[in-house]
Amino acid sequence: MTFEQLVVLEAIVSQGTFRGAAEHLHKAQSAVSHMLKKLEDELGFELLSREEYRPKLTPSGEIFYRHATRVLRGMRELKSIAQNLNSHHEAEVLLSVSSTYPLPPLLKLIGTMTPEFPATHIRLARDNMGGPLERLLSGEAQIIISTLHDVPMERVEAAPVAPIVMLPVAHRDFPAAQGNHLRTTAEMQGYVQVVVSDSSQSNEQSRGLLPGGLRWTVSDFATKKEILMENMGWGGMPDYLIRKELEEGTLVPLNVEGYAATPVQQYVMRRRDKPAGIVAQAIWNRITAQ
């Protein structure tokens, strides 16, 4: 039994077909079939049933596969550790952080690391929605903080960090803020919703949009907040960015159908297939330790 045979089994199960596994692994389909058959011969039982178009795990195969995935995970972690031990200080580390995530804890952490790693340029980018993930998958960013929306978990390692709360708000004099009764979606379509654009190349703002409503799109939450403070629209804001305005009563929560105050779990993430350098690993360790 070899590590490569287990990788082949994992690929067949995840891709659904021998052909898909071969394409995923960049191998000939005959080689994939041969490696699986060799593994089954060694084990003495079938792992996959070939009776249907898509191979399906046999009862024994399901049990074996559960244990195999743990072995694969352990082997990959061991490989990553070995690569990290053989790495050197990076010239640059880029962190891409969702614009909804509070920066002060991260800035404090980076500030303590700068004297420790003076030869490494630590860059911090502020991105919206799909922006952090796009930077991570392209290899531009080593570490990101964002939600798990559209994240391919087979390629990305993630650990939870402090959640934030998205709160629909408007100026206290905004028409929809008068009274505490529930505002329907149809009613809110007549008011301008201020949204922050996606900073990824897709540039498709699709989260939290009121269908069929009036809309202004801005590039950041600072601009959005200014528009809300000028009583020119409504929209969702991270609660920590408007804490003072909420306490003073300048901005007030809205009671909108389908737009309740929503806790949003954020995660620190990095790619599984890219070994972390010494500095990136140190940053990762300290963020996850918090």
UniProtKB/TrEMBL annotation:
The keyword Transcription regulation belongs to this UniProt entry's keyword annotation: yes
Name of a matching Pfam family: HTH_1
Signal peptide positions (record): none
Alphabetized UniProt keyword annotations: DNA-binding, Transcription, Transcription regulation
Record has Transcription regulation as a keyword: yes
Superkingdom of source: Bacteria
InterPro entries for the chain: LysR_HTH_N (IPR000847), LysR_subst-bd (IPR005119), WH-like_DNA-bd_sf (IPR036388), WH_DNA-bd_sf (IPR036390)
HTH lysR-type domain location: 1-58
Similarity annotation: Belongs to the LysR transcriptional regulatory family.
Protein name in UniProt: LysR family transcriptional regulator
Organism: Pseudovibrio japonicus
